[in-house]
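Wait, mind explaining this?

_____
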Amino acid sequence: MVSPAVMPTYARVDVAFTKGEGAYLWDDQGRRYLDFATGIAVVCLGHSHPHLVAEVQRQAGELMHVSNLYRIPGQERLAERLCENSFADVVFFGNSGAEANECAIKMARKYHHVNGHPERYRVITFENAFHGRTLATMAATGQAKILDGFGPKVEGFDHVPFDDLDAVRAAVTNETAAILVEPVQGEGGINILPDGMLEGLRAICDEHGLLLILDEVQSGMGRTGKLLAHEWTGAKPDIVTLAKALGGGMPIGACMATSEAAKGMVAGSHGSTYGGNPMVVAAGNAVLDVLLEEGFMERVQELGSKLTARLEELRQRNDSIIEDIRSQGLFIGFKTKPTNMDVVNALRDEGVLTVPAGDNVVRFLPPLTIDESHIDEVIGALERVCEKLAS
């Protein structure tokens, strides 16, 4: 049972893990689980990855923390590498995805302020989004179940359907500062922006002088088979937020931007005590070492295609249980006809950990380092679950 000393803000499963290696976790009873949850898309290199462990251990033995009042060489290196491999010119480091999104919202407002338009503060966001649990990011998310009890909500967010460019155009006013969107909605149910949508949003931003902010907290860092998910399109963002897999298990978030978008973010405009400290950037650099290896992204794409194909074959045999498959790289969801929690719980009974999402979807978020044997294992477990639930 969960200790009563822990605030009950989570509906925790009564399983306690004590060890992880590669794609597997072991609980305190010694049972092994195939981890296709990875701490909700965090443990991108799998558990106890030798290079990541070595770099974190090395850094812990040298220097764990200093303030951002001083230079942090590892932070500078991580920022430079992220910029070299993306659209960005500058990076701010925080501790989480919510903080990265807060930074992005502040940046958009400050951008228009320094341009002489402080009235431009509103941000267009999308239905079924998820941007965090701070007061501003809850308002950006806009879901009643998240906002309930925390009113009055932060003003300045206008919500439109995920796939409707006309609705976006209609929502633009003289007070609009930016558009904030997830290229792939994770919590919302693995909803991928339709072809041409991101390019359409870029065009709207260019027409009206808005900033395009992409929340890649879950879709970034290789999850879709590109370092950043928007790279599958021709659209260039002004700001991108990262977290989750960036540290491979260490708490780090990042707000990446062009120099133009970030021109209002001067000394004193934003800060974080822990953000980008030596420990977390050592982890971030170790993760990048692996993700930037030649052929790594191509392998994620290949494994994602194979897993998706196997899931589709299974769906055709079990269409009373699985309704459809949604995937990009190893960012995979399948909508179920039973409740998704029935499927999640049944898979856990089979020794496989997964994550529920909106629209009755079950998410597969495996380590990006899996191999085909793990695909065989998860498909076999899901086949057995389908048989049990259909009987």
Observations:
- The first strand starts at residue 17 and ends at 21.
- Residues 296-317 form the longest helix (22 residues).
- The mean pLDDT is 97.
- The CA atoms of residues 81 and 146 lie 35 Å apart.
